[in-house]
Model the fold of this input.
Amino acid sequence: MANRSYLYSLSNRPASYADRPETISGLSEWPYDVPFMYRLLMSGDPQLCASLISDGLEGDTPEEKIRLHAIGSGFDAGFARVQRFIAIVRHLVTLPPLPAPPPVPKAPTLAERLKRFVSPQAEAAPVAAVAQPVATAQLLAGLDETMAFLEAHRDACLLLETVELDCMSEETEEGLRGCVEEEIARCIAAGAALDALPDDIAQAARRLQAALLEEQDAPLDAFFGLRLDDDCDSTRSGATEDPLGLQWSDVLYFELFDRAAFEEAQRG
Done:
């Protein structure tokens, strides 16, 4: 099974593994990555909180459990950013595509220099790349689904669980906590990037379009590498390495207990 990140909506920010919410719903899961849309949704007030997936690692003893962390955030502020981002993207896809930045010229090899010396000839001027139209029908449908799904599963808080990803590189409590803190910084950066776009939606769309193709200074660098077309989540094909994250479902591998179900399970 692939290691995944998991996203939930719930009624509180858990202070401990046993601090179960009154209500909880799965939102999405993603293999080997945390998509941009997760981070934007979590950007309202991301803080360390207790993991609800596990009360320690496999092999821990009851006396010596590694404390696992997740990220908790309020729902409303992040959802407002998602709504604005989607509105900007809808305008962006109506704009003519920008040409790709010209490739950085490479220094000629020794063989190439010798060839030019022996057979000098005029070099052709570089030709600007012609931007091709991109398909966006699936992207737009995914944005519609995103809005409808999140509205239907709205709650007071959000929970982002990354423990499976973190355990791929760390095994100590300090190391695992550090991974979560780094992810919190990425969530904050996603929100800051959106807030840095102009208030005018047309201007914001043009700034976003440019930031997708050429890396900008912070905070707009958070957009670099995203695709806003039908390949926005095509990581398996290699079309992108940075998924947008438009796949939603309330049925996740980890179906977390709410308070009533947790207490019933504890009673046995």
